[in-house]
UniProtKB/TrEMBL annotation:
It comes from Micromonospora polyrhachis. This is HAD superfamily hydrolase (TIGR01450 family). SUPFAM superfamilies: HAD-like (SSF56784). One of its GO terms (molecular function) is phosphatase activity. Keywords: Hydrolase. Pfam families: Hydrolase_6, Hydrolase_like. InterPro entries: HAD-like_sf (IPR036412), HAD-SF_hydro_IIA (IPR006357), HAD_sf (IPR023214).
């Protein structure tokens, strides 16, 4: 639980796969330091890919958005859940098959590019319903989808993110819209294509022949769980949806390999920490100036040092079945406050 190694984190991997919302930008604003970090990766000749569950933009549009922010990106580096979902539909349906699309224009464009015919009403006899995030999606679209699915149409979702990060805090995502139909239909979609399914990550690695990729994300339930399913190491950055409290409560299937405040942790040894892989209960825990000890509901964090080292120790305690921890000194309480944890 000390620094990850003597080399920078980035030096141990041959491909960096970035989530976008909450990692590189929030909606359309770059996260502080992200442009500089990715520009440095480009300057070093690193292989990069972007894998996003957001189905409201096509890959070319995402690449253009990144380029407009100062991040040079190629269309082939961007993998979207919309494009992946259209590919799945094309594999299952004959060319020219009507598909009811609930989502943004980008999803309709991907369905069209896959040789299928987007429609908007259940009366058009669609053989499938594809549902992705779109800010304009409302009751009318959801009602048509409900009728079509009840009539026997295949129901496929681009992703199931409950929320989207934004400068104003988390906003409803496609998972929230899926919940409306889940309630109305009393069933789940037939297939969810995007993260945490590992398809986007495997595709990114295959395209460039990478053997040791690192997934960088801000969500435990999509980015990190998807990396675990794909058998890839992962870095959680605390710039988006998942918080330190979420990390302490993470199930084994959603635990990252590393955690950092932001993308600067790719280069700064002091800005990233490796998390314990399989902690067990211990009466006392130590790491780099920090200690957790005590019992009977009075476990305390004491000492001083790096906040990330303290967070890694707190993860070992929580994941090892330990009791809640409180600060046993001002330095410890300050760390707990910094991460929004009870102190």
């Amino acid at each position: 639980m000390s620094s990850v190694s003597r080399e920078r984190l980035v030096d141990g991997y041959d491909l960096l796969i970035f989530d976008l919302d909450g990692v590189v930008y929030l909606i359309d604003r770059p996260i502080p330091g992200a442009v500089e970090a990715i520009s440095q990766l480009h300057a070093e000749g690193r292989k990069l890919a972007y894998a996003t569950n957001n189905a409201s933009r096509r890959s070319s549009e995402v690449a253009a958005l990144l380029t407009g922010m100062g991040i040079v990106a190629r269309t082939e580096e961007v993998l979207t859940s919309a494009a992946a979902t259209a590919e799945v539909l094309a594999e299952r349906l004959a060319p020219g098959t009507p598909v009811l699309v609930v989502g943004a224009e980008a999803l309709r464009a991907e369905v069209t590019a896959a040789g299928l015919v987007p429609v908007g009403r259940a009366d058009d006899a669609p053989e499938a319903v594809v549902q992705g995030y779109g800010p304009q999606v409302g009751w009318t679209e959801l009602a048509e989808a409900s009728v079509a699915v009840r009539a026997g149409a295949l129901w496929i979702a681009t992703n199931a993110d409950r929320t989207l990060p934004s400068p104003r805090g988390p906003l409803p995502g496609n998972g929230s819209l899926l919940a409306v139909l889940r309630t109305a239909l009393d069933r789940d979609p037939d297939l969810v294509v995007g993260k945490p399914e590992p398809t986007l990550f495997h595709t990114a690695a295959h395209r460039v022949g990478a053997s040791r990729p690192l997934v960088v994300g801000d969500r435990l339930d999509t980015d990190i769980e998807g990396a675990v399913q794909a058998g890839m190491d992962s870095l959680l950055v605390l710039t988006g949806v998942s918080t330190a409290a979420d990390l302490l409560a993470a199930a084994s299937t959603t635990r990252p390999t590393y955690v950092a405040h932001d993308l600067g942790g790719l280069f700064d040894l002091a800005g990233v920490v490796r998390l314990p892989s399989s902690p067990e209960y211990s009466a006392e825990r130590y790491t780099n100036g920090w200690r957790i000890a005590g019992g009977d509901g009075a476990r305390q964090l004491t000492g001083e040092g790096s906040a990330l080292d303290a967070l890694a120790l707190l993860c070992a305690e929580a994941w090892g079945g330990g009791e809640p921890v409180r600060g046993g000194g001002e330095a410890a309480r300050e760390v707990l406050r910094e991460f929004g944890l009870p102190y």
